[in-house]
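seq/struct pair 1
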Amino acid sequence: MFHSSIAKTIFFTNYYWLLLLLTNFNTYCQNYNTMKFLLLMLNLLIFNVLLSASSINYEVSMSEPHTHYFEVKMTIIDYQKEYIDVQMPVWAPGSYLVREFSKSVEAVEAVFNKKMLKIEKLNKNTWRIFSQKAKEVIVSYKVYAFEMSVRTSFLDASHGYFNGTSMFMFVDELRNQPSKVAIYPYKDWKKVSTALPKTADKGFVYSATNYDILVDAPFEIGNHLTFEFTAAGVLHNVAMYGEGNYNIEKLKIDMAKVVEACTAVFGENPNKNYLFIIHNLTVGSGGLEHLNSTTLQVNRWTYNESGYKGFLSLVAHEYFHLWNVKRVRPIELGPFDYNNENYTTLLWVMEGFTSYYDELLLLRAGFYSEDELLRKFSGSINYVENQPGNKVQSLAHSSFDAWIKAYRPTENSANTTISYYSKGGIVANMLDLMIINKTKGTKNLDDVMKYLYQEYYKKQNRGFSAKEMQQALEKISGLKLDDFFANYITGTQTFDYKTVFGYAGVDVVVLSEKSMSFGVSLSGNVVRSVKRNTMAYDGGINVNDEILALNGFRFNDNFSEIIEDKKPGDVLEVLLSRDNLIQTLKIPLKESEFNRYLISSPKEKNSVYKKWLMVN
């Protein structure tokens, strides 16, 4: 299989030799073998010219947006085969779940010279077009778009939005070929926002150097508000859809501060321009990173005092991904396989480190106080250490199994899994302090991120393995981390928080508390989850049980009142409905133990603390 970069290399090599041969034709053509060689080189040159000329262009229109259908036209040029297999991606990079985008595709047709071509569907996301070596094949299809998330596509009477993986089919052998995309907005819509470069002053036509670039640039289409600001020497455009309580002038200043803080970690910003697409909705769905853009979906009233810092933290998180995962990446995450899961054990670095920095950078940018940041760190530790799944699933397995567990939570997930976001952020925090302490304040985690960026992205132009990640940490810190990785990355041991935070003079108080917690989460009186090692778990309470009464009293989320005068060992009589059958369980009361971690800032700031939080 040839790709355009290979084809171009062969083309120019052959061109050079062909010129040399033709220039010295009389000398080189003294015998038959030389003439055969010349003809072979000429044929190879022609083949590569033809191959490198192959391309795919797309058109996207939306004639009836209220029906939620995008209409897509895909033109395959100079790919003259007996048949062409076109495929729809099954997932979107950055969101590790097979979403089966082909489920929303319908009315697939292909024509050549206005003649319908035969199409056979081979599997869930592959269509075979019997093109009979046609010079130009036009494939048309519709995409139903009514899932408002940062990972998918949405179209209604107010606007259109899509990610390329849920919109554009591809031909595997042409994935490295350039393409153009023409957008035809609905008749009353005037704006198209995307990070792809525009090819002309008029209309909405954009270019992409290959398929990866094409689908890594979401589109916002409609009459949305737009504004811009410059930060870190980069022009940033913002496409703002939906009403909200935002203040544009304030956003320009504050988002610029976040951009500057992110860029300072790596020392340079690789983009000439960047696009924020922001959807202001009733229910937000977070963000998704792209090479030089992001989509953020937030509650429309999030820009007030209580929610605004959360919004800025989301901005920092997705912008930090501009480096960490889009350029600094595991070797398994690119080039992408769009037909299958792309497994890696390093999402704790990609998402966990980013989660650490999205809080740390708000301190550096002036939005958090030191005490606020320490409370954030304390909250993460309390969440992780009191989740039963923390002792069941390692960080490496949490990363690897994201495809089947992280994005498909069940009622038992808290008992069996841990978030590579939250625990990965704690690992980043621990490593940062360990590096600063070991190097006597000359290095920190920023230096590791810089090294990964310079060495693997800029110098070697590739991702890194899990082993190389450990080697990078060891190279910068001077630490030997075999035991660290065995205990905390592939193992499930608890960090020695007192020692590590102690490097910065930060005191960690661990309060061991006991309570007779029932151990369930409820929706009304219906059990939605049961926490492991609690009285409900040990006593046989099931998810979907409807709790009717406790000890003869009607249950109305009044568990603590009913057991107020009880002690461990006393029996609780639970009347419940399970599958509409009434039954009684007798459950011994027991205490559940949990640890509460309190982190407080030191009275005197030592050199490790000052380097860690970059304060005087």
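seq/struct pair 2
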Amino acid sequence: MPSKKKVTSTETPAPKKAKSVKSVAKKDESTANETKKYEEVHFVDSQQSVWNYSLFTQEDIQNFQWGTHYSLYKVFGNKQITVLDTPGTYFAVWAPNATLVTVVGYFNNWNKESHPLKVRLDKSGIWEGFIPNLLAGEAYKYHIHGFAGITVDKADPFAHFAETRPFTASITWQTDYEWQDKEWMKGRKKNNALDAPYSVYEVHLASWMRPDKNNEEIYNSYSQAIELLVPYVKEMGFTHVELMPINEHPFDGSWGYQGTGYFAPTSRFGNPQDFASLVDAFHQAGIGVILDWVASHFPYDAHGLFMFDGTHTYEYADMRKGYHPDWNSYIFNYKRGEVKSFLISSARFWCDQFHMDGIRVDAVSSMLRLDYSRNAGQWEPNEFGGNGNIEAIAFIKDLNETLYRDFPDIQTIAEEATDWPGVSRPTFEGGLGFGMKWMMGWMHDTLDYFKLDPIYRQFQQDKFSFSMVYFQDENFMLPLSHDEVVHGKSPMIYKMPGDEWQKFANLRLLYTYMFTHPGAKLLFMGDEFGSTTEWNYKSELPWELLNFVSHGGMKFCVKQLNALYRNAPALYEKQFKTDGFEWVDLNHRSEGIVVYKRKGNKPQDDVVVILNMTPVVRNDWPIYVHNKKNWKELFNSDAEEYWGSGNVFNPTIAAELVDKPSKCYKLLIQLPPLAGVVIG
């Protein structure tokens, strides 16, 4: 039994822009009046502890069962409403194999018999009821008598707020919030477009910065993140921030990927209105917000979704499909209409209630393939003899179609690491319908290449250039994510070869390549200033490193690369199109010089990128370009303010016409060691 008392106004301060419970009740009274026309609304003896009451229509029930109800959060969970002039809370939960469901909490001293819900007679498996005079801030669970006499106490899958771990009860709460981001929402179609700069800062909110770095139990709140994180992301010039899973989760070490609250921002940092305030602040600063969202698996915590009513309610019953061996967790039953409605409603909830600009779907590869991380005999082929999970594929397509239909100005992004075709192609073209896909092959090949001593890079140039063969196959996002700096993989700076100066030079060179490569960008927190430790979710980033000129220079370099990306149309207007890239020189392996052009809608906006992969200075290096005579240096990763040498740069660029008919010019470029130069 939970031991935490009722959440009161002193424990959970009222957010600045949150509506009061009184105003919420007033607003929902009109909703309650409207529902009286529904045939399922009915009342009995008003003296009962639970009144019979329903928000469901027959259409709701049908769509829920068919897997086509995409706003379940409007009818399930807890709702503070007024019935017969009496304020209280309506509860609704799906437990199709239960024989009894009661609401328990501090309000009834966790009495498992006093507040029973009524099961609907339409065999939908929905239990519901209204408890008068029970308002916002009450902790509660569902006590369920399930299959074969099993009894369980479960948190509400549709609750918007939960107790702070280690307590596990849900809290009666609504997500009403008065948004101030009208200007952002009005113009975000342009900001989130595929032909706009899209540079993402990936953040684990608990460990980005802490109020006391020696106390892992204390976090900055959502409100403190407004004061600290929002201006930092703005200063660095990122266009978007991606929050690692912010939904409620019991175990810190899961980083949020083992979730129990698919409709609840974690209470670690505040209440739902506080989280809305954070998103609002990002939007007012001109920064989009992407939510990392997990639909591939969920944990077996006793209060969570697993065996919800004593049976496999949300997960596949066949453990060849229902159990995930990599994460010791359970896989959603995508074939079941109610589960499909639950998941798509969750994704819509974050876009609807919290104005998300994008949903990054985790572990898509594991959803698509029946044999993912399974050996022969551990999986069963689909009805056509293949390894594709047909139900999951259909779910993913419906998810993307629904989100883009209802929120056309957002992006959905897939973490998908295989060669599955058409991940970021429309469903009407046979694709899965995502807006973008993580370019995992680029990430692996790039890191393998840059880990090499420069003398050996000439022998691996094909690995370096391979991504240009297929970059146009998908709308790729280039990820250097949290997964690359944990579990013994080392921080980014220590992946680089050479002495200290060379490590920093190599990393600046890698980032220059990343920001000038076709596609959107994603960089994990700490990578921007060359963190010297692997990411640890229990502590904050090593901000003290910024006292060193080398790390401060790295941070400034990334800031300037973001500015270059935003201000050079050639780097984003055609970032997903074949004609946005052109090789200029790939024939100097031994010297380690690679040259390519990025092209925009206007030829005069074209830029040329020259990468020197060796520590050798190259003076008057010739490159040949067409149509454009006058060029200037736009960026040089060896600049002194980045902790480069600052000795080799291009104040002017000499151009000689060598072929008049083709307007071919010979340029002489000064190339610093282990550096990238961008001219335009």
